[in-house]
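Posted in: Protein Modeling Q&A

I'm a second-year student putting together a small comparison for a lab meeting, and my supervisor asked me to include a predicted structure for procollagen-proline 3-dioxygenase. I've never done this before, so apologies if this is the wrong subforum. The sequence is pasted below exactly as I got it from our records. If anyone can share the structure token output, I'd also love a short note on what stands out.
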Amino acid sequence: MAKSEHPRLIIQNFLSQHLCKELEFIHKSCSAIGYRPNVFSTTLSHLIATNSAHLILPFVPIRERLKAKVEEFFGCEFELFVEFTGLISWSRGASIGWHSDDNRPYLKQRDFAAVCYLNSYGEDFKGGLFHFQDCEPTTVVPMAGDVVMYTADSRNIHSVNEITDGERLTLTLWFSRDGSHDEDAKLISFLSQSLLHSSENRPHSYLPLPASSNMYWFPPEQASNYQLGFDIRFARIHMLGYNLYPSQDKSCFSALDSSYDLSEILMEPLRLVRGDELFDKEFINILHVLQVVQFYCWKASELQTSENEERRKNVVQLSQSQWEKINDLKLMFLKDKQLAETVFSHLTCDKPRQHSFDWVSFSAAVTAWEAYTCKLHKDLLTSLPHWRSHQFIFSVPAVGIENGA
Ligand SMILES: O=C(O)CCC(=O)C(=O)O
Ligand SMILES: [Fe+2]
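Accepted answer (user: helix_wrangler)
Welcome! Here is the predicted structure, written out as tokens:
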């Protein structure tokens, strides 16, 4: 139990590299604009709101382990509630000065923090060192898998240096002794409503549904008219080397036609383009594309297949008129390409290319994404009745056994 004047704990390799990568996949395919400049976030309620509630499941065991560790170390077994769980990424320019985590009247319920690093200083981003104001250790170098736990009060004043390159990603949780701030109760109630609703009305209940477009526009000050900046989902897809083609033929669709509701286009079916090839599969909306593309990024090394004659079966060559539509989309959603490159830079110059692209392994990723998603969706439907009856989010043993966990 912590007796120090500055109660804190740092544990290396608390999370597996596999989990770090899985949470990175979730964040890069689901995040929205965050609460501070140059910050993006994925909260669990945002996952529910965008019909991706099944993606809560990978968080469940780690939330349990973190809470147990915090309770053990700070000597408050069975007293704590998770108050907030979120994936938070900081891009170039983001920083936070000296503060404690309960330093606002509306944050007073926060008793403890746990910050898990999902990627690494020097490799994935530059800057972004964490500092405690008093006592050792004064500096924490974020490394994937490590966690820092500390009291949320003024005994642990801390800061984070400005990010100068790349995207720094954490899983951050706060814990409270106050049951009225229990995140689980709110999530279970939201889950119950939204799952009931979605299975009644939607045939593919596991497919993502975007939130309102302004939640994805960067910088957020421009989200009222979309004149400057970019859509973060579109930019992430573009940065990975893809273009998008709007499947539906809209005669009113034009980059210059301001009467067309921009936000609608990315909610509608889209197809994926690489080089001058169009992939012959329709995705239901941009979040669907983004999830599959990020899944391919995560799993590519496991999906490498040898080239064969089947390769060209599911791609077609783009025509001139199709190129025009692709460029129209780019003009609308990637107004400032340079800014997008700055915000989502990958330190690629320091790293060898992670994988080479081919449509055969990409098609395998589409199938594998569907299997991954359906499995989680099924596990969620199995878990929810248990969560509801206990009013508590926990790893349901039957689901764990099925997973081979
Ligand atoms: O990401 C970190 O290392 C700490 C972030 C932080 O201090 C906060 O969100 O309050
Ligand atoms: Fe903080």
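A couple of things worth pointing out for your meeting: The chain has two domains: 8-206, 213-369. The CA atoms of residues 116 and 147 lie 4 Å apart.
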